[in-house]
From TrEMBL:
This is Olfactory receptor. GO terms for cellular component: plasma membrane. SUPFAM superfamilies: Family A G protein-coupled receptor-like. Gene3D superfamilies: Rhodopsin 7-helix transmembrane proteins. The lineage of its organism: Eukaryota, Metazoa, Chordata, Craniata, Vertebrata. GO terms for molecular function: G protein-coupled receptor activity; olfactory receptor activity. Residues 44-291 form the G-protein coupled receptors family 1 profile domain.
Amino acid sequence: MGDKGGDNHSEVTDFILVGIRVRPELHSLLFLFFLIIYWMVLLGNLSMIGIIVTDPRLNTPMYFFLGNLSIIDLSYSTVIVPKAMVNILSQKKTISFAGCVAQLFLYALFMVTEAFVLAAMAYDRFIAICNPLLYTVRMSRSLCIQLVAGSYLCGWVSSILQISVTFSMSFCASRVIDHFYCDSNPIEKISCSNVFINKMVSLNLAILIILPTIVVIVVSYMYIVSTVLKIRSSEGRKKAFSTCSSHLGVVSLLYGTVSFVYLTPPSNPELRKVASVCYILFTPMLNPLIYSLRNKDVKDAMRKVVWKKKVLL
């Protein structure tokens, strides 16, 4: 089916974001829920970034990647949550065409970048455990910067492709997006264009993003497990595994919530919105907690900061 409306997409100046459907008397409670969780996202990730930047002991590749992970978590949550909170209390619930494009671009950018940064962190743990004597040589500062820059480049390219095919469609059927942010799937539903190309681009992008990152993570941990099992002392094995447990927790949380979002049946949009809340709010909230609660260096750095504050007071 061809475009029914020709270039009607150029006439659309804004969209309406339906948001999460709740009874009107629960809007204030939903706003408060978003506010509290978002505040915890800000507090946790800004604290993690501050500790990593200020503590010289955390000037290592692992914490360089962790600091970037906190920036990414903070960023994609900020791209969506403040606007969603405004719309909860607003009657109009609109977002401009340019704002929708920017939101989808930045959301896709940070989501893809996070997947590649987590793969880089897996490679870092592989070198640290399997080749500890060569760790400082292999994981140089320049390589770490290149890996993070490459992650952002992959995110940028995939986002450009995603918004190019998404917003080249005609929106003559409706401008009401059944979601609380601009995502490609609900946007496709209000288009009167043929979405086959969009589906194929999205599928190929997903394969090109998920396959290499998962392969790097799985292969890295296969080598890590093989190396750790060769360690004779139980204390040595425990110490080696403890350096990876936090990363594995974050990887499981990310891929678990993303799978929940995109494997939820399209026929149940409200469940998909709940799944999106898990990814956009709970994942960036829990990531700093996972690393701070299970990482001795981070806990020591936090105690140091608290102790300094007590001394100043």
